[in-house]
Design brief:
The chain is an alpha/beta fold and 251 residues long. It is 50% helix and 14% strand. It has 13 helices and eight strands. Helix 5 runs antiparallel to helix 6 and helix 11 crosses helix 12. It is globular and about 55 Å long.
Length: 251
């Protein structure tokens, strides 16, 4: 059985641990042995995107060391896994000691749903969800890792679930990591446009593959008084989507 190291993203760890449990269940159902290295840290993406390459390098070294020895590194986040796959080798360009280790980790790193479908060959799950859902394609997962068909394939096997595509599903929700902090007015307009497209589908549930995007949209929805449910796709696929989802109870 493949030995998988589960990358526990910061947002998952702090705000939505259910996503981690769901990811572990899906990986085990796919025949993997799953471990969560305690020495792992933030992937370093915030520092990297802000130009603090020394801090990003220090975190990257910790992640690389923690996950060496695993057959695969899998995480329920397109943005974090794109950092491991694409940015780590760049961080250590010209470093003869760390560049090979970064490249080796990058080659074994995968976003959760693409790993299940593209590597493990999973095409269906044993889950049920009663409702109409619409799916948001996050920028990093879509453009950085090619995650598009994989979640839709798996969602198509969920009993009772109806998927209704929104207009401009591939357009950014306005989160963009530090973008929403630097440009709050632009970010607010972008998320409002996104949520208008969500509402137009008539769906009662919004799904996605990145907690940053989902928390951004869920927060806006709650402030608007909406009761639309928001879940990470892994929660639905693992049969762990309960209650109102992300941001439940926040107003």
């Amino acid at each position: 059985m493949p030995r998988v190291g589960l990358f526990a993203t910061c947002l998952m760890n702090l705000f939505r641990p259910t996503v981690g449990f769901a990811a572990a269940r899906l990986l085990e159902d796919a025949g993997c042995t799953v471990e969560v290295p305690m020495a792992q840290s933030c992937c370093g993406q915030p520092g990297y995107n802000s130009g603090d390459f020394d801090a990003a390098r220090a975190l990257a070294k910790q992640v690389i060391t923690a996950f060496e020895g695993f057959d695969y590194v899998v995480g329920p986040s397109g943005s974090c896994m794109a950092t491991l796959r694409h940015d780590y080798p760049k961080l250590f360009e010209g470093d003869p000691a760390w560049r090979p280790r970064a490249e080796a980790l990058a080659a074994r790193s995968h976003e959760l749903l693409s790993f299940l479908t593209d590597v493990c060959g999973v095409s269906k799950v044993a889950a049920a969800y009663t409702g109409t859902v619409t799916y948001h394609d996050s920028c990093s997962g879509l453009r950085g890792l090619g995650v598009k068909a994989q979640p839709r394939l798996l969602l198509g096997s969920v009993e009772g679930l109806q998927l209704t595509e929104m207009q401009d599903a591939e357009v950014c929700c306005g989160f963009g990591g530090t973008f929403c902090v630097k440009y709050p007015e632009i970010s607010g307009r972008m998320v409002d446009d996104k949520l208008a497209n969500v509402a137009a589908t008539g769906a009662d549930t919004l799904l996605g593959g990145d907690l940053g995007c989902l928390m951004n949209m869920a927060g806006r929805l709650r402030r608007q008084g909406s009761t639309l449910k928001v879940f990470h796709t892994a929660e639905v696929l693992a049969g762990m989507a309960t209650g109102g989802g992300i941001g439940e109870g926040e107003r």
